[in-house]
Amino acid sequence: MTAKRERAEKAGRGGEEEAARWLESEGWEIVDRRRKTKLGEIDLIARQEGLVAFVEVKWRRSVADLDLAIDERRLARVAAAVGAVAHEYATGGEDIRIDVILLAPGAQPRHIANAWMP
To answer: What's the pLDDT score for residue 13?
Structure first.
């Protein structure tokens, strides 16, 4: 792995940790992290009463870069991964959705609820 890729991976993991702490402060329970499937990876899986959210976390160095951090192709990969494992997490008839949390230094987390609507 290149040094640039290692830095990006470390920043990404830090972003996921920051997003998890923020979700917990908003009343969510984190039930899984970095769930790998053959179709892709889900950064965080969080639960609230009657709802399971599969969360894609994006961290960028500047707020301006956040607008380009997520696109339909990336969300489609997350959606495919969610389709493979959602039944393992929504076992009590909970609603499911895909959320995105965008993070940048000095900015409040931007939570996009129900970001994927095929």
So the answer is: 77
